[in-house]
Design brief:
- By secondary structure, the protein is α/β, with parallel strands linked by helices.
- The protein has a single domain, classed as Rossmann fold.
- It has nine helices and twelve strands.
- The strands form three sheets. The protein has a seven-stranded mixed sheet with strand order 3-2-1-7-8-12-9, sandwiched between helices. Strands 4-6-5 form a three-stranded mixed sheet.
- Helix 5 packs parallel to helix 6.
- The longest helix has 34 residues.
- The radius of gyration is 25 Å and the shape is globular.
- It starts with a strand and ends in a 23-residue tail after the last helix.
- This is FkbM family methyltransferase.
Length: 299
Amino acid sequence: MTTKVIYDLGANTGDDIPYYLLKSDLVVAVEANPVLCKFIGQKYKSEIEQGRLVVENCVINAEGESGEVDFYIHRSNHVLSQLPPPAASEMEQFERVTLPSQTITEVVERYGTPHYVKIDIEHYDAQILRALFCAGIFPPYVSSESHSVEIFALLVAQGGYNAFKLVDGGTVSDVYANRVITCQQGRPTPISFPQHSAGPFGNDVDGDWLSGRDFMKVLALEGLGWKDIHATNQDAPSSSTSLLQYLLRYLDRKSKAKTRKLISRVKSACSWRRSARPTSATPVRDMTRITPKASQVSA
């Protein structure tokens, strides 16, 4: 039986690992930051010992040979750490460290053909995609954070993908809360995706697959940024779903997510106000027993 392998490139704190473990035989988590790798190793010690999870503590390179490279760890927000040198005006926000590196092709050759590849590597997503395609690696499912249209162009022109979905990173924890997904063993399993996680992939992402032509219109309306483009060569784009219907459902999901967030904030504010009220243990002055001063009594 073929082993189903998921590659988590840019694993960060491992928020997506529980979901990936449900959807595969093996998860390969790649993270450059040694502190975060140690955290993942402690959090998922059992899964590592069972051989279901491998953690590669290295910088993932698009080309060249394995070896030590400079990597830039953000001093206050580790999710912004990156391989390309930051702009001179931002350099003081980063700490330059020397870390081991591996190419993406080396990692794939070691662990096997990917079923799904998640790419979330700050300012380096396009290079990894290009390296995969140049090596003849075309995963059935792939996603990449997309701050430029280059990601979509690579998926279409070099990857040959023709079916797409969009996941809005800012609303993942709201839109995909309390979901039921089908796990690797075929049983329905409840799951919620935490904030800053990449969310689901493949057919666990809401909506039908769109053709490249229709998806380009979605990107034009929604814009890029903290959004993941999902692509597949396994499923065909839906011919029964119009672009308008897709957009209406997509905007409806975002609207509901924002409404839930607003309700949560209101509840939190109300809870704070209740906690600020005097309790029975707080002495309250009895105004009926206050005796006026002599100077306050009229003659």
